[in-house]
Amino acid sequence: MTLTPLAIEHAYMTFLFPFAYHPKNRKELCEKLESEGFTFFTLQNKELENAFYSEGITVSHEEIAQFFYPYVEDKLFPAKSNSQDFLRFSKSFNITGFLQSKHETFPYQILSTDITLCPFGTGIITIRLQMTDEIKEFSDVVNFIHYFRVLEAKLEEEKGTNHHFEFGHYQSTSELLFQYLLPFLEDYLIHYKTNTYGGLPFLEDERMLVSAYLLSAENAEIKNEHLFRLGQVDGKKPDGVPFISSTNPEYITNYVTEHTHVRWAPSSYVVTSTQSQITIANRPFSKSVRDIEKFMGIHYYNLLIHYFYRMMLLKVAFEHSEINWSKDKLVVDDLIELITRFSSHYYFDDVVVRTEGKEISQMLQKIFRIQEHYLETKTTLDNLYRALEDRSDKRNNKLLFILTVFTVVSGIYGMNLVIEEWNGQVNWSNVWTYSIFEWLALLTALSGITLAFVLTCYSTFKVIRNHLHRYKRNGPH
């Protein structure tokens, strides 16, 4: 299949990398970020409107505030860093280097980096950059996106890619991220499992999610093949030949119809998939600045909150699959508490006020399958809760049976089960001379005292264990 070339004159990108941290270290991490030169982001600070973006790009904080419903805005943009909601810390870098693959060199500039601390011990690293050549071929831009979003190259065709800057050379995007941009962050990360990158169950395919705004030559024809390749991030084969992962025109058309927002076609398209959300337009730069500002502002946050939804639901699904039914009662309780708090405080079907934003939001929900994951999770946890209740009922019934038997024996025969010797000084050497009723009285008394002691110790143990578990998980309140 012959692919149509397309000249790209401007390319802006944001790469999103999810991570997990201990909620009890949240305050310490905030202090560390500020000591490393990161600025706490608030909508009230208007000086930040053009601090972290490309030259000539200003992201209006008032527009962001009006884009989301108030109940979402309050959680996305808290005024103080001691909030338990979303906390964004940003730092400007403006460093220029290039990515070297086996066959090509891609110059680019890292504009800034965000670390957004989300609720429930999750977070998102955002890397903003732009490619610096004035005119680039479409396949080269998509190829750069493909290579950059790979944290650690494991496939043979992806190996051999390096990042080069005046201050150093890095063998992978992961090295660039954790050795230069955020060298302090690894100390705060937690790992769920050992067979995935960073131990993260919600980092799919060990690649970052990419959002991009590409500006082609004015009035250039944007074809379905271009939109399909953006959704699939199809750049070039290892030998440098442009690549598309389908040769079926009907399949490509159906894919584009399902994954593309065409409100502003034929001058602008937004392609959304589980690995990317990319806008491509064919207007002059002077007429596109406003759209680029939206891309870095309101549309970025629209993507971020839906990505958070997807992360949380994948996290809950993973933790449920790891439950040891015989031992992890506390984990089960935590899981039920987590999804309940998530549902009531952060998960909303409708987050955006404006029509265009609603349409893109609906596209994200559909492609990320958020509603499906949510319903599956709720159903699974409902079944889990009922199963736990059944187990608890069975334990309570057994305990109630024991107590009933004990109460019946001591109640019915209580008036007769008297050992006269106990009215004075007890001589335990006379135990062997007790009658059968006196033995029954002795055993009833000892078993009652033992049962009360055991129940008291067990209840105390559970209270202490729950307290220590919550302290270990969340730290002091």
Outline the fold blueprint.
Elements: E1 7-20, H1 26-35, E2 39-40, H2 61-67, H3 70-76, E3 87-100, E4 105-117, E5 122-131, E6 136-137, H4 138-148, E7 162-165, E8 168-170, H5 173-181, E9 209-216, H6 224-232, H7 249-259, E10 260-261, E11 268-272, E12 276-281, H8 289-296, H9 298-321, H10 329-345, H11 355-368, H12 370-412, H13 436-474
Helix pairs in contact: 6-7, 8-9, 9-10, 9-11, 9-12, 10-12
What does this structure look like?
- The protein is α+β, with helices and mostly antiparallel strands and 477 residues long.
- The protein folds into 2 domains: 7-285, no CATH class; 413-474, no CATH class.
- 44% of the residues lie in helices and 17% in strands.
- It contains 13 helices and 12 strands.
- It has helices at 26-35, 61-67, 70-76, 138-148, 173-181, 224-232, 249-259, 289-296, 298-321, 329-345, 355-368, 370-412, 436-474, and strands spanning 7-20, 39-40, 87-100, 105-117, 122-131, 136-137, 162-165, 168-170, 209-216, 260-261, 268-272, 276-281.
- Strands 1, 2, 3, 4, 5, 6, 7, 8, 9, 10, 11 and 12 form a 12-stranded mixed β-sheet that branches.
- The mean pLDDT is 84.
